[in-house]
Structure formats: C-alpha cells, structure tokens
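Dear all,

This email documents one entry for the complex benchmark we are building for the journal club exercise. For each entry we list the sequence lines for every component of the assembly. Then comes the predicted three-dimensional structure of the complex as a token string, followed by one or two observations. Please use this as the template for your own entries, and keep the labels exactly as they appear.
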Amino acid sequence: MTVPVQHLFMLAGVLFAIGACGFFLRRNVIIVLMCIELMLNAANLTFLAASRLHETADGPDPTGPVFALFVILVAAVEAAVGLALVIALYRRKQTASLAQVRELRG
Amino acid sequence: MVNILFYICAVAAIASALGVVSARSPINSVLSLLGTFFSLAVIYLLAGFQFMAAIQILVYGGAIMVLFLFVIMLLNLGNPEQVAQADPLFKPGRATGVALAVSGAALLLGLLAAHALPADHLSPVPAGSGRAMIETLADAIFGKYVLPFEVASVMLLAAAVGVLVLAKRERPGLLDTEAEDNR
C-alpha cells in the first residue's frame, strides 16, 4: 500500500469525530459504549499510522503497535466493566436509556 | 490495486461508523460496529501490521462484539418496544451543540495535523515482513515495556473482580453479610 500517510490520519480523525458525535447524542447506554470503542479504534489507527511515519530501515517503529495493543486491552476492560454497569443499571431501573438516569445530574 | 482496496475499506469503515451512530436498534449498531472493525483490520493488514489485524479480529470481532451482543440479548434491548421508546437521534438542545462542537473540533484538529505532516507516501510493505514485525513487537513488549505489560495484567485482574462485584445479584448469601447490614 503506497497511499499518503495523511490519509490514514484523516480516516482516524473522521472515525473519532463520528464516535464523539454518537457519544454525546445517543441516549442508549450500549450505543454510547460502542461509540467509545469507535473512538479507541480511531486512536489505534493513529498509533499504527504514526508507527509507519517513523519507520526506519528495520521496519515500522514498534512503539506504535505496542501502545495500540495496550489500547485494545483497555478497550476490552472498559467494555467488560461498562456492560457490567449496564446490567446493574438495568436491574435497578429496567431501562438502558441514559435519559432516565438523573440521580447524579446537578 | 492495493491502494484502491484501502480506499474501499476506508469508505466502508466510515459508512459503518455512521451506521453505529444512527441505528435505532442496538443490534444493528453492533453489526455496523463489526463492519468497522473488519474494515480497520483489512487496513492494518494493508499497512503491514499483520499481527495487529489478527488481534483486531480476535479481540474486537470475537470477544468484545460477543460481549455486547450477549448483553443486548440478555436484557432483551433489541425488541420492538424497547427500540420504539428510544429517544430521537437528533433533538435540538445543549447536548447537540456540545456534540457538534467537540466532534467538529476533533475533526478539524485531525485534518490540520494530517495536513501539517510531511507529504510522505507509505513505502510498500515488503513480502514476508510479518515475522520480523512480530519479533520486533515481542522484543519491545517483553523488553522495554515489560513493566506496563505487568501492570496491564493487574488491571485485567482488577477488572475481572470488579465486574463480578458489579454484576452480582444483591441477595444476602453466605458470604454476603454487608448486603444484610444495609437492609
């Protein structure tokens, strides 16, 4: 693949913006969590693109993929804890809509 | 040819990301997200990160998506009544303004940063570079980054315990004296 490296960054930026939009606009907890996954994926793409940008004769810089692996790990943990919170919320309120959870709203 | 495949995958990723945000039913949202993950996996593969593409499909497509689908089906969130009472996607208000401002700023920053980069084209990935890439990756993880690696394993353990505590049914049991005290 010989595309300009900027196109990878642009794709990541667009994906992040879509994810952020959904994060603020949607009221379904599960879809909000999925938007977070989308943003983390965009971050991963940025790490990998930066790794290709800083490549040497030996190949791409390993720091980018290593950080992307840690991001995937954090995403997995975030999904597990977030979905456990969804289940706890559903058990209390029988809803998955953030519009009906207003205890902590100032 | 490979470049065309990249642009096809990029368009597919953006289209399915829009599907995630705009789908009314969470099930459709999950399936769109799966499309984004697979398109990104193909892009990783094209960019020469074979191992990351495999991890992307295994962890995201295999584990995280199944977790999401499992919770949606467990709570029956995909049934028509639940979907019908979902809020409209775009309702004018402060949240919409904040969302558009933040995502617009992110988009603008991303595009500006991309524009400021040197106009480099990626060099083609040499055939058979996957093995060398995995070797460098393993050297980095188990050498320079071994402490974050260990910390990450502790984080996984903490998450496993935390999820158990969160999702546990609140019912006084043999070991559950605190729940009885709260009653």
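Observations: The helical segments of chain B are 2-22, 26-46, 50-74, 80-84, 94-116, 130-144, 146-167, 177-182. Residues 21 and 111 of chain B are 21 Å apart (CA to CA).
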